[in-house]
Design goal:
Layout lengths: L16 H10 L9 H14 L3 E7 L3 E8 L6 E2 L5 H4 L5 E4 L12 H4 L6 E8 L5 E9 L7 H39 L9 H18 L3 E8 L2 H8 L1 H17 L6 E6 L2 E7 L3 H16 L3 E3 L2 E3 L3 E8 L7 H17 L5 E3 L4
Parallel strand pairs: 12-13
Antiparallel strand pairs: 1-2, 1-6, 2-3, 4-5, 5-6, 7-9, 7-12, 8-9, 10-11
Helix pairs in contact: 2-5, 7-8
Length: about 350
């Protein structure tokens, strides 16, 4: 709800409002899922202050969003209708023993209507940069004053809430960093396919699975024809565009259970679990035809490419190994090159 539509007087905004909101949103906590750790801290606040209600709030631009609550159903309210909007104007905390007697809060809906709060105390959630982004608040429907010790404990507990907010942010940053590292360790930057290390690990996994479930396993090795000429004629940047395009081309045409990886240079290896030699050769032929009729847009114009394909399949048994499959597929691929390129050659079953 915007300030203009609010039936209540606008609560003043802090002088650092823009920077405060930027700090708040950097934590990505608004509208997040329920969190038992925050719930525990809200309950602790209620127990320490001996009150029936406690909330952890974040003061957004036009609303106060409740991250956690105890004794009160979590909800968000317009900013000009919430006590916490007054709290963040204070240095540390705000304690009002009689809400109906204080000009700042007497008119607010939670005072005049259900649940008719009469006492409020809020301790600011303060970032390491000094921005007050929300509050840990306790309320009661009876007029009363908290003891100095209770207010101090509430303030210290608010520091723990802020520490938890910081921890959750660090967890998200770490998770994102690990995801990037995992991607870098698994995928080839240029083609978007599995890199050689990850490809070999996946092939080992599929060999072991083929042995367990007694299913055939096929691989296709393909190498782009005359790729050096593309680099020489159009430049290495154009060659990179083509390699990226071919990688996406292959990945988009495989089954979910299949895998594709950059084996080296312009060689790509496709892993097809549960696929016979005949079926794998048919897949390779379809890919060959589709690739030969495609082109890739570069800054120097469209470039068409073809590839030589080698196909091999293995049945579960002691002879089946990643090394045997790769060697046989590589030899079949070179036969395709020797026999004129832009063709599919199948090796003998292993």
């Amino acid at each position: 709800m915007s300030q203009a539509l609010s039936p209540h007087p606008a609560i003043p905004r802090p002088a650092d409002e823009a920077a405060r909101l930027e700090a708040l949103r950097s934590y990505a906590l608004l509208d997040s899922e329920a969190d038992a750790d925050f719930d525990f801290l809200a309950e602790m606040a209620a127990l320490i202050c001996e009150v029936p209600y406690a909330v952890i709030t974040l003061v957004d631009a036009e609303r106060v969003w409740v991250k956690s609550s105890f004794g009160r159903q979590a909800q968000q309210l317009p900013r000009d209708e919430e006590y916490c909007s007054w709290t963040i104007l204070e240095e540390s905390s705000l304690h009002i023993p009689n809400l109906s007697a204080d000009a700042r809060t007497a008119y607010l809906p939670l005072t005049t209507g259900e649940p008719h709060y009469m006492m409020y105390c809020g301790a600011n959630l303060i970032t390491s940069d000094g921005y007050r982004i929300g509050a840990l608040c306790v309320m009661d429907t009876q007029m009363r004053a908290l003891s100095g010790q209770q207010v101090r404990m509430l303030t210290r507990l608010a520091c723990q809430v802020m520490a938890l907010i910081e921890l959750r942010a660090k967890d998200r940053e770490l998770s994102a960093a690990l995801s990037v590292m995992q991607k870098l360790a698994t995928y080839d930057d240029l083609t978007g396919l599995l890199n050689r290390r990850a490809l070999l690990a996946r092939l080992q996994e599929e060999v072991e699975r083929a042995r367990r479930i007694v299913h055939p396993l096929s691989i296709i090795m393909l190498d782009l024809d005359h790729f050096k000429q593309i680099n020489d004629s159009h430049g290495h940047l154009a060659g990179d565009v083509v390699l990226h395009g071919v990688g996406k081309f292959m990945k988009d045409r495989l089954r979910v259970t299949d895998s594709a990886g950059r084996y080296g240079g312009e060689e790509i290896c496709l892993i097809l679990p549960g696929t016979t030699l005949e079926d794998a050769a048919a897949v390779a032929e379809k890919l060959r035809q589709a690739l030969a009729s495609s082109s890739f847009a570069t800054s120097g114009g469209s470039i068409s490419v073809s590839a030589s394909f080698g196909v091999v399949s293995g049945q579960p048994g002691p002879e089946l190994s990643p090394e045997a499959l790769l060697d046989a597929a590589d030899r079949a691929m070179y036969r395709a090159k020797e026999n004129g390129r832009d063709r599919v050659e199948a090796g003998q079953e292993i």
